[in-house]
Amino acid sequence: MRTARWLLRSVCPSFFAVSCAAAPHASAPTPAREPIALTAQSVALPGASAPASLDYIVYESAGGRVWVPVGNTGSVDVFDPARGAFTRVDGFKTDEREVRGAKRTIGPSAATVGEGAVYVGNRATREVCAVDAKALRLGACAKVGGDTDGVAYVASVKELWVTTPDEKSITVLDVSNPGAPAAKSVIAFAGEPEGYAVDEARGLFFTNLEDAGGTVVVDVKTHTVKATWQAGCGENGPRGLAFDAARGFLFVACTDHVQVLDTRHDGAHLGRLETGNGVDNIDWLDAKQLLYTAAAKDARLTVARVDDAGRATIIATGTTALGARNPVADAKGNAYVADGRGARLLIFAMP
User: Fold this and answer.
1) Domain extents for the chain?
2) Of 212, 242, 239, nearest to 228 (Cα)?
3) Under 8 Å between Cβ of 153 and 114
4) Most exposed residue of 109, 121, 179, 279, measured as fewest CB within 10 angstroms of its CB?
5) CB of 276 within 8 A of CB of 301?
């Protein structure tokens, strides 16, 4: 397969490289294009030694930056693609715990973007803290009922929804004052919530029950469960979620594929995307109708376009690293993947 080198001058030229399959020769009917082969560039996390404790990362569209909470350094490393460099937000507490028979340092592990603030969940202290998005300064924190996992901002009600799977609950925080999150309520579930997505227009919050199975639909205003759908993830359970606001598609990450559900027709099954093994959280880019997955066990990034019928077509793939997962996409479609074993951020430029 012929390849061509691409240079993305608008986004950190020294950090991006990509190879692309040559366009197929026109014929009738036109054969399907082969997926673009993406090549990773990596940026080391400042002050972190491998392996680093990484989980959820987030793209902040207003600043054009990627926020990477790093548990064992007690920091959130904010990557600016325009400069090709990180800025560290320090001051988060850490703790050493035994995880699967080994000592592990835990700390900040998830982030979500609010209005003028980015909120960071810290497993070490069981709290969520506000970070001033302009000053990059750590602010006030609020306690939650258990170890934090995912953190989601719900703009319509100015709340943070924090999954606390050990407690089989979601803790809701009031952030009507952006710099001062405050405890508001707790929503109990029949299983351990994992992943999140929000339908702001209809006031719905989605989470998965990893241990019990099922994707739960929660009314944002009443905090009551409206429905539970089965994505067919099998015994390993569902993981991350992403939402297509324009068409009402909900993407449910199973460990080896993504199932597309139609939220406007009671969670009806639409397309299915094969991804490889080890999928956790996923991302969706509305503007380009692209879905991003990273299979940690197969070291594979998959970028797929989803049509109006919910069918997914792979348009690009890339080799990541064992254990690398939880991709996010920027406004241009470039992908960023957290590589904990390598203590780095992997960057894939889309042509």
Assistant:
1) 3-348
2) 212
3) yes
4) 179
5) no
Query: What CATH code is assigned to 3-348?
Result: 2.130.10.10
Q: How far is CA 116 from the centre of its chain?
A: 20
Q: Kind of pairing, strands 204-209 and 102-106?
A: unpaired
**Residue 23: which pLDDT band, with cuts at 50, 70 and 90?**
very low
Pairwise CA distance, residues 153 & 237, whole Å: 24
Predicted pLDDT at 32? 67
What are 265's two structure tokens? 């027709």
The DSSP symbol for 103 reads: E
Would you state the structure tokens that stand for residue 300, as one six-digit string?
A: 């594979």
Predicted TM-score (pTM) of the model is 0.90
217 has which bridge partners? 206, 227
- The answer to whether 178 touches 125, Cβ cutoff 8 Å, is no
Report pLDDT digits (tens) over 154-191: 999 999 999 999 999 999 999 999 999 999 999 999 99
Among residues 312, 319, 310, which one has the least CA distance to residue 269?
310
Helix (DSSP H) and strand (DSSP E) numbers for the chain = 0, 32
In angstroms, rounded to a whole number, what is the distance separating the alpha carbons of residues 83 and 44? Answer: 14
**Unique residue bearing structure tokens 């929660």:** 218
Q: Is 14 exposed, middle or buried (0-12, 13-18, 19+ CB in 10 A)?
A: exposed
**CB within 8 A of 186, min separation 6: which ones?**
145, 169, 170, 171, 172
Place of tokens 């199932």: 259
Report how far apart, in Å, the C-alpha atoms of 36 and of each of 278, 287, 332 are. 22, 19, 16
**E-strand spans in 114-190?**
117-122, 127-132, 137-143, 151-154, 159-164, 169-174, 182-188
